Amino acid sequence: MRGGLLESGAAKGLNMAGKKQTVEIIALQCTECKRRNYTTTKNRKTMQEKLELMKYCKWDHKHTLHRETKVK
Ligand SMILES: [Zn+2]
Q1: What is the Å distance from ligand 1's center to 54 Cα?
Q2: 69 lies in a domain?
């Protein structure tokens, strides 16, 4: 039962990726020390605004706001 659900989900993802590259890799940059602590992926179609998350920064030793930046 569960396998069937996973299969259909994966097939959808493949179709979308095959047509057009909608998922991009982004880096999450700490707004306090400007270090890039995390990388994640983002679907451009479902997420058009800039990603902002509270994440733990190991350099600041606390949770800070991380904002998406381009990788590279
Ligand atoms: Zn930081």
Answers
A1: 11
A2: yes
CA distance 49 to 69: 12
C-alpha to C-alpha distance for 63 and 70, rounded to whole angstroms: 21
Whether the predicted model's global pTM rises above the 0.70 cut: no
Ligand 1 centre distance from Cα of residue 9 (Å): 36
Residue 9 has pLDDT above 50, yes or no: no
Residue 3 belongs to a domain? no
**Residue 72: pLDDT above 90?**
no
How many angstroms separate the alpha carbon of residue 64 from the centre of ligand 1? 7
The mean pLDDT of 53-70, rounded to a whole number, is 97
Could you tell me the distance, in angstroms and rounded to a whole number, from the CA of residue 4 to the centre of ligand 1?
42
